[in-house]
Write a structure and sequence with these properties.
alpha/beta; 561 residues; 4-stranded antiparallel β-sheet; 20 helices
Length: 561
């Protein structure tokens, strides 16, 4: 009897011991199953909208903040994610390389678009980043449509999305500038459209994408939408409230034809002629409005974001660059252009809410480069600044080349702040290329306007991780870039004395906005450094697709839910 009681007691202890273990194991198994079910491998928005604002400094967000409405820039910042310390990690900082780097996740050293134009060492001629004479214009009899992305040597995020979805999703790219559409669209875009001004004023394309314009594009071109913007440029708000910018009448701004002063309202006859000079619209905020109108039409007529397969709309707002070049970053014209762009963004987002659905699309907004204050203005404010023309140093440089090497033919070209040398001449002189690069670099370093100089040999042999040489190296393409790289002093540009430009490795050209918004995006901000090539891998991680094949950037983990 005692043995039986002992046995029952032992059995009870064992049951009590193993039941919790079993229950715990069951809970772990269930939790594991739940975790597998909750694992978010990808986010599937119906539409991704990539927005590149041409020549947008980061401080345009903060400077004009109190004038913006709630539905444009503020919506992106307050309901999305703001990367406050976002930079281009390469130079030259210009439109072609900028758009390419955003969409490839790489710098020019990898993707090959080293400038808007550059000297081709093989042919000995200058080439344009998007030109391609093997294709013909579509929508115009001019040569303005002879374009393709063939000079871009890697894939884009738009390419990878198309490949991932077995080419079933659509990619449509739109910009006033051809390069602002062709390069973001990638190699596989269904269509890229750009604006042909002159006396035609219509959206065109290339036979790379299509043989004729779709009916909806022809209808848009045939409507009065574009002509309706041929009107005087007046400020959208009372100009007296534009206290965030300089005086309206000053010596630092350019003029439209027939104008005597660079002041509002801009009413040159070319602005209001309904049948001629549509090119002038690019240098007004109306160019951005035309782009918005056309993008909205594309969403509706191409049914973008209307099914379960993710589509991509790549939009570049180019007029901000034309206005910045003409008037400079401190002008009332730039301020008015951004207030109007804010309204255009709100129009676009409202339409996307209606047609695609709130929370069903993902947006990023960035820029292709920044810009410097007008050097003449800076100089008058006692800030070091100036201007540079290669022709001004050419006589002295030629004298040095002839004295040191016996010929000026050793220099083939100067472009994008790079000197291209004739390697055959160097070989005939029985000298090493690296030696000649170094000799010329040391000579140029003595020129007052030059801040620093690097050689192609340094770019190829060293590995830089910070500062100006890091930026230059990321922009250095071994097959396409030059032999000697110049860096001008801060505040110095190669441009006229009115308006402004860009292209340097200095911070005013590299610091640009980066905003994410919509499906799969956290709300918040960061002041940690992010770089332009990080955009594409961030999107790829969100979408669960392959990174573009030249990607050097990394996902910005703080952005993603």
């Amino acid at each position: 009897m005692m043995q039986k009681n002992t046995f029952l007691l032992l059995l009870a202890v064992l049951i009590a011991f193993f039941n919790p273990l079993e229950a715990n194991a069951q809970r772990k198994s269930k939790n594991k199953t739940d975790n597998v079910q909750r694992t978010n491998l990808k986010t599937v928005p119906k539409l991704v909208v990539g927005i590149v604002v041409d020549q947008m400094r980061y401080d345009y967000i903060t400077r004009f903040w109190n004038h913006y409405g709630d539905g444009g820039f503020k919506r992106l910042v307050e309901e999305g994610f703001n990367c406050k310390n976002n930079h281009f990690n390469y130079a030259p900082t210009s439109t072609g390389p900028g758009h390419t780097s955003v969409y490839t996740g790489a710098a020019p050293g990898t993707h090959g678009i080293i400038g808007n134009n550059w000297y081709d060492k093989v042919s000995g001629t200058e080439v344009y980043c998007a030109s391609d004479t093997t294709f013909v214009s579509v929508g115009t009899t001019s040569d303005a449509g002879k374009m393709s992305p063939h000079r871009m040597t890697v894939s884009t995020i738009t390419d990878e999305l198309r490949l991932h979805n077995q080419m079933r999703g659509k990619t449509i790219a739109i910009a006033l500038k051809d390069r602002g559409a062709v390069l973001p669209g990638g190699h596989t875009a269904n269509a890229a459209y750009w604006f042909h001004g002159e006396d035609e004023g219509k959206w065109i394309s290339s036979s790379y994408y299509m043989q004729q314009l779709p009916k909806w594009v022809r209808d848009f071109n045939g409507s009065n939408v574009i002509k309706s913007y041929k009107k005087p440029w007046t400020t959208v708000k009372d100009i007296s409230t534009y206290s965030e910018s300089g005086t309206d009448n000053n010596a630092y701004e350019g003029l439209f034809e027939t104008e005597i002063t660079p002041t509002f309202p801009h009413t040159t006859p070319n602005m209001v002629n309904k049948n001629a000079d549509f090119e002038i619209l690019k240098s007004t905020p109306y160019g951005n409005s035309i782009t918005t109108d056309f993008a909205m039409e594309a969403v509706q007529k191409e049914s973008l974001g209307m099914d379960a397969i993710t589509d991509f709309l790549a939009v570049s707002f180019s007029s901000t660059d034309y206005v910045g070049h003409k008037y400079g970053v401190n002008s009332k014209e730039v301020q008015d252009t951004y207030l109007r762009l804010d309204m255009d963004l709100e129009r676009l987002f409202k339409m996307l809410d209606q047609k695609v659905g709130p929370g069903e699309y993902t947006v990023f907004l960035t820029a292709d480069h920044g810009a410097v204050d007008v050097p003449a203005y800076l100089r008058d404010r006692k800030i070091p600044a100036g201007y540079f023309k290669f022709e001004s140093i050419r006589p002295k440089l030629n004298e040095f080349l002839k004295y040191r090497f016996g010929t000026v033919d050793i220099l083939r070209n100067f472009s994008n702040y790079q000197l291209f040398l004739d390697h055959k001449v160097i070989e005939n002189l029985d000298m090493e290329v690296a030696e000649v690069q170094e000799i010329i670099a040391r000579e140029l370093l003595d020129y007052p306007v030059v801040d620093r100089v690097y050689t192609g040999d340094q770019m190829m042999k060293n590995e830089y991780t910070k500062g100006i040489p890091y930026i230059l190296q990321n922009g250095y393409n071994q097959k396409r870039s030059g032999d000697v790289l110049l860096v001008l002093k801060p505040g110095t540009i190669s441009y006229r004395e009115t308006g402004t430009s860009h292209g340097t490795p200095h911070i005013y050209d590299t610091h640009v906005p980066l905003l994410f918004y919509g499906k799969g995006i956290k709300r918040g901000s960061t002041v940690a450094r992010t770089e332009i090539p990080d955009i594409a891998p961030t999107l790829a991680s969100l979408l669960g697709i392959a990174f573009p094949n030249g990607t050097t950037g990394k996902p910005i983990v703080e952005v993603l839910e």
